[in-house]
Amino acid sequence: MITRFFKPALLSVVLTVSTLGAAWADGAAMLRKVDAIRAPSSDFSFDLSVKTADGVSMTMAVSVKDGTKGLVQYTQPTTVKGRSLLFVDRNMWVFIPGSKRALRISPQQQILGGVSSADVARTVYSNDYSVVGSDAAGGGKETLHLQAKSGAAAYSAIDLTVDVKTGRPLEAAFFTSGGKRKLKTVYFEGYKSVMGANRPTKLRVVDHMAGNAVTTMTYSGYKASTAPGAWFQPNYLNRL
Amino acid sequence: MTPRLSPKSLPLTFAAALAGFAAGPACAEPLGYTLEGGVYAFGQLASDGATDLVPNPAARGYRGASLGADLVLRPKVTAGPLRFEGSFRLRDRSGADVTARTDEAFVEWAISDTVFVSLGRRNLSFGQSYCINPADLFRQPLQETRLFPTAVSRAMAGGVDMLTLDVLFNSGSSAKFVYAPEDPADASTPFAMAQFSGMLADGALDYTLSGFSGARPGVSLSLTRGIGDATVLYADASLRQGRDRQVVSGLAAGNILQFAAQNTGRFYPKVTVGLGHTLTNGLSFNLELTHDANGLSDSEWAQAMGALGSLTPVQSAAAGAALGQLNGALGQYTQRQNYGFMRMAKDSLWGSPVSLEMTVLHGFDDGSGSLGLRLERPVGERGQIGLMATHGYGGARGEFTQRPAQNTLSLYTTMSF
User: Fold this and answer.
1) Under an 8 A CB cutoff, do A96 and B378 touch?
2) C-beta of residue B3 within 8 angstroms of C-beta of residue B121
3) C-alpha distance from A222 to closest chain B C-alpha (Å)
4) Angstrom distances, CA of residue A140 to CA of A25, A165, A190
5) pLDDT, position A183
6) What is the value of ipTM here, to two decimals?
7) Going by C-beta distance under 8 Å and a sequence separation of 6 or more, which residues neighbour residue B118?
8) Which stretches does DSSP call E strand in B242-325?
9) Residue A192: CA atoms inside 13 Å, Cβ hemisphere, count?
10) Which residues contact B59 (CB under 8 A, 6 or more apart)?
């Protein structure tokens, strides 16, 4: 009797877990595809323009090394020109010419509008987040539920909506405090052929903590980078 | 301490610069040239009430209302592996002559992608602490115009003539060697430093360890640690031989101040531990605690204040001279041993471009302190306009209430080009 009851139950649990496991594995593969679209290679550089709805803008030149290290050089406006930012994994430092030294900052520190240092620095999600589930979003889309691998990630959770056929990221909602509070939503737009693939060149950031204020990040000038690895450290920032 | 245009080293710098730029490798490379700069102007209203230490503020140069402006030109020239950077300042202050100063002028030669040698005047800074930073060995706080934000005021301290060698490693660590013919704390002594910086745990922890000789030799250590996505813990510490404080031991007949012998053999620790945190709404704050064994103890402060109370008659020339002497002896940014500092800042207030900064520097030894409030907003793409108010609080013999200008209101503007 017991055996007759438990066998189907056990089978259904095993099937459910294996189905979920397969879905998560598919989700992880899809996340890698998303990352490959956002980051053309492990070493590359690009120009970034950040603009708020009221016209305040900032431009910067970004160089990425090994997919996890980056140098960000502010180029406009004149008031911030000469500032630079270093990220090594999930750690960040800023150099402000007048302060004469590199200071460690947290990824939460804002750059402009709803855009934080982490939004500029982290171009791939799979380093910081794991896929813990997914839902069909209709119209050939799927929403991947991402959870931070550690407390050092910039956000606690992300709901990433992806075009299943192409793997293109379409929309990402960022959450904090155990996924309870939606901080911002990012829309991936302006797909263009860049370094051999169609990649988003415009990110529209809606900051839910500031009355849904919109900040736009525009990417251009992608190219392979040859910056030496030794430059990706705080003591190089004053030479940028 | 005013940065000096050292006759010993600066000609060397310019000779090196000229020789370098005229030399072979540079000629093959295109010359890069940029000229940047800024105008920093302010108007300040300050309470100029007399204190025990400064009974006649006007005679000591304190002003109820003052104006000032700095014009800074920063040329940068690159030619192949050579880079020249300069920072030249013209300063105008109410009631003073216009002065010119070279803050920085150095040539750096990139021997390879990872080895750099520089010669000339440089303004180097180390450590993470915002307020009292024991690891910032070249800092001269009294040279800064502190009503400007930290990002501007630190550069106002000027540089030191030096020779440097930097070696960067692929691991993210680096070594730095500095030789300065004149220690900024004592021009008769050369200064030399060896420093190593590194990272642990994929950059989650970074450290800088320095050993140095000079007027006050010793070691310093800086540590920073990222905690989660919003918190940074940090510590800056130094252990240096001798004191930079003059300790009043008493008042002899005729209003002559007596000073205790400096204990040059002993090492004095100075430590700041701090925490920085950023909230999801963009509000960030820093908390710092400092212990400076080199500062004046309760008994030493009581001696200084006791001497102040014993000056008789207050208006006499001898008393004035003693006060001047005491003023000079207390000529430090902070005088005592134990401090707490808090800073809160937000870049965008209620969605507007106005940024806010509030600071409190509190002296635990006598309960006095200083409050600061700053509001700043951009003007076009090149400028900032700001309002800065400060208030000193504490008892009559408190550290922060012994000087005039306890309350100030400043309007300033910075314009970059």
Assistant:
1) no
2) yes
3) 23
4) 19, 7, 19
5) 87
6) 0.86
7) B106, B107, B108, B109, B162, B163, B164, B166
8) 248-252, 256-259, 267-278, 284-292
9) 11
10) none
CB B64 within 8 A of CB B45: yes
- Residues of chain A contacting residue B124, judged by C-beta atoms under 8 Å apart: 100-101
From the list A229, A65, A121, A94, the residue with the least C-alpha distance to B174 is: A229
Whether a cis peptide bond, with omega within 30° of 0, leads into B313 is yes
Among candidates B345, B371, B352, B344, which has minimal Cα distance to B360? B371
Distance (Å, rounded) from C-alpha B246 to C-alpha B262? 7
Which of B122, B202, B229 should be substituted to probe chain A, the one whose Cβ sees the most A Cβ atoms within 10 Å?
B229
Contacts of A207 (CB under 8 A, 6+ apart): A113, A114, A183, A184, A213, A214, A215
Angle subtended at Cα A103 by Cα A100 and Cα A105, rounded to the nearest 5 degrees: 150
pTM score of the predicted model: 0.85
Side-chain-side CA neighbours of residue B417 (13 Å): 8
Give Cα A206 to chain centroid, integer Å.
15
- Residues in A touching B284 (Cβ below 8 Å): 106, 109
Instruction: Give the separation between CA B127 and CA A100, rounded to whole angstroms.
Output: 10
Map residue B399 onto helix, strand or coil.
helix
CA count, 13 A, side-chain hemisphere, A15: 6
* Residue B341 · residue B275 · CB < 8 Å: no
CB B286 within 8 A of CB B297: no
Chain A residue whose CA is closest to B206: A104
**Does B28 score more than 70 pLDDT?**
no
- The minimal CB distance from B229 to the residues A107, A110, A236 is found for A107
Among B168, B229, B378, the residue with its CB nearest the CB of A236 is: B168
Distance (Å) from the alpha carbon of B84 to chain A's nearest alpha carbon: 11
Please state, in angstroms and rounded to a whole number, the distance separating the CA atoms of residues A233 and A88.
Answer: 8
The tokens for A92 are 């960040």
On chain B, the residues whose CB falls within 8 A of the CB of A107 are 229-230
Distance CA B251, CA A36 (A): 76
A 10 A CB-CB count for B396 gives 10
Q: Is the dihedral of CA B56, B399, B221, B149 positive or negative?
A: negative
Helix, strand, or coil (residue A236): helix
**What DSSP designation does B118 have?**
E
Mean pLDDT in order along chain A per 10 residues (240 residues)? 52 48 67 89 91 86 90 88 88 89 84 73 80 89 90 83 92 81 91 91 89 90 90 91
B27 pLDDT band (50/70/90 cuts)? very low
Q: How many CB atoms are located within 10 Å of the residue A212 CB?
A: 12
Bigger pLDDT: A23 vs B306: B306
Distance of alpha carbon A220 from alpha carbon A45, whole angstroms? 9
Residues B301 and B296: their CA atoms lie apart, in Å, by 6
**Closest residue of B to A78, CA-based?**
B382
Q: The tokens 């014009």 sit on which residue?
A: B71
Task: Please give the structure tokens belonging to residue B178.
Answer: 């500095």
